[in-house]
Amino acid sequence: MKVTHFVVIFAILLSVSGLSGCVHVAAWERGNLAKPEMALEPNPLQSAIQAHVYGSREAAASINSSGGGGGCGCF
Q1: Dihedral pair phi/psi, residue 34, rounded to 5°
Q2: In angstroms, what is the C-alpha Rg of the chain?
Q3: Which of 3, 10, 42, 57 pairs with 73 at a CA distance of 20 to 30 A?
Q4: One of this protein's Pfam families, by short name (predicted)?
Q5: Statement: residue 2 has pLDDT above 70
Q6: What is the CB-side half-sphere exposure of residue 68 using CA atoms within 13 A?
Q7: For residues 68 and 59, is the Cβ–Cβ distance under 8 A?
């Protein structure tokens, strides 16, 4: 009996915590969410350059290049 009671309480708490993430964002607050620093990738150009340098230094083929680097860090 106690196990079923615990499972029911756990399910209720889980659903309440899941629903707490669904909130209405007011129109004047949406500007804060649209800022560039809130993006998943705030600096896409810098990330692409870092991925290129990492791929060439590791001598591994990356998704952005057709072949692997020489391992010396050359471009």
Answers
A1: -90, 5
A2: 24
A3: 42
A4: DUF4266
A5: yes
A6: 8
A7: yes
- 47: tokens are 């990330």
* 11-70 pLDDT tens trace: 888 888 877 777 787 888 888 878 877 788 878 899 889 888 887 776 655 455 555 545
What does the CA dihedral 44, 49, 51, 52 come to, rounded to 10 degrees?
140
Q: Nearest CA to 74 among 60, 58, 59, 56?
A: 56
The whole-angstrom separation of Cα 28 and Cα 34 is 11
User: Whole-model pTM above 0.70?
Assistant: no
3-state secondary structure of 3: helix
CB-count exposure of residue 69 (10 Å: 0-12, 13-18, 19+): buried
Distance of CA 30 to the CA centre of its chain: 20
